[in-house]
Design a protein that fits this description.
The chain has 297 residues and is of the alpha/beta class. It is 31% helix and 11% strand. Strands 1-2-3 form a 3-stranded parallel beta sheet, with no helix packed on it. A 3-stranded antiparallel beta sheet has the order 6-7-8. Strands 4-5 form a two-stranded antiparallel ribbon. A hairpin with a 2-residue loop joins strand 4 and strand 5. The radius of gyration is 21 Å and the shape is globular.
């Protein structure tokens, strides 16, 4: 965390990687980069496509699998979203887990931004400070925690998480729910989708939202069709989990035109030394990382 939460974070990480490249430590057993995440599943959200700039291949797979045209224009990253709310360009803030206000770079600026929205809504396992700073209207939707039993129409459910090592494994709650009225995150999101997404040409949605909420295996069956490396998802999950493909680790091949890694010289725009003179009140400066607390279903 100390490497990332500073004004020269990007440049610092690049130099760490440069050192490992020069020592030949990438792609060797027992060596390489080991990112320690701030949350248990920060890696999994990216793998599942939770990103303001999804790759074309991912969007194409979504389009092919679900027969719709996903938006192709980039969305907002965390800092851009805060600025957009502050400037009145975003009217609704919807959070799945996390403590957005306390986790973002500039607490005062972020609080002002949230208060300028028409609606703030949080799907949360427990109360936190973000719930106290709201738009003109506010919702708190309590949900099951990952340690609680998640029993749906088809029986007890399992979710999957991806750790910092790129290992996907199952997670099963074993505690009784705090209330019989609690819904899972999946049930809440699927219910919202079913209630708000209109039928196309008079035909119902191609996604069986109710079926997804009743049996998470159905979601993972679709993940197989969209995300590379998840073939046999449900089977391998129940066999103990699996490593995701990693070209450098598996084949010592880099995703570059030459297939080799290259030493990178941090530039001013990428968080190099010149960034240290930047405005200290710029919300992009104190914490240039994004934090999410989501699960890959």
């Amino acid at each position: 965390m100390g490497i990332t939460q500073q004004t020269s974070a990007v440049g610092c990480i690049q130099e760490v990687v440069n050192l490992l490249l020069l020592r030949g430590q990438l792609g060797r057993k027992g060596a390489g980069v080991c990112p320690v995440r701030g949350h248990s599943n920060v890696q999994g959200d990216r793998t599942m496509g939770i990103f303001e700039r999804p790759a074309k291949a991912f969007l194409d797979a979504l389009q092919r699998t679900f027969q719709f045209d996903p938006p192709r224009n980039p969305g907002y990253d965390t800092v851009q979203a805060i600025r957009a709310m502050h400037e009145g360009r975003v009217g609704v803030f919807f959070a799945l887990g996390g403590n957005f206000l306390s986790a973002t770079p500039d607490t005062v600026y972020t609080a002002e931004a949230l208060r300028r929205t028409r609606l703030t809504a949080h799907v949360s396992t427990k109360l936190n400070r973000s719930h106290l700073v709201t738009g003109r209207r506010a919702l708190i939707l309590p949900c099951l925690g990952r340690t609680e039993k998640d029993r749906q129409a088809s029986g007890d459910q399992i979710v999957s998480v991806e750790n910092s090592m790129g290992v996907v494994h199952a997670s099963v709650g074993n505690l009784p729910p705090g209330s019989e009225h609690l819904r899972s995150e999946v049930a809440i999101v699927a219910g919202l989708a079913q209630a708000t997404l209109p039928a196309k040409n008079g035909l119902p949605s191609k996604v069986d939202w109710k079926g997804w909420a009743s049996n998470y295996d159905h979601i993972r069956d679709q993940v197989e069709q969209v995300v590379p490396g998840f073939e046999g998802y449900n089977r391998r999950l129940r066999e103990g989990g699996f490593y995701l493909p990693h070209a450098v680790r598996d084949h010592r091949r880099f995703d570059t035109p030459s297939g080799k890694g290259g030493v990178h010289r941090p530039s001013d725009s990428e968080g190099g030394p010149a960034r240290r003179g930047a405005d200290p009140h710029d919300p992009a400066q104190p914490r240039p990382v994004q934090h999410h607390d989501l699960r890959s279903q």
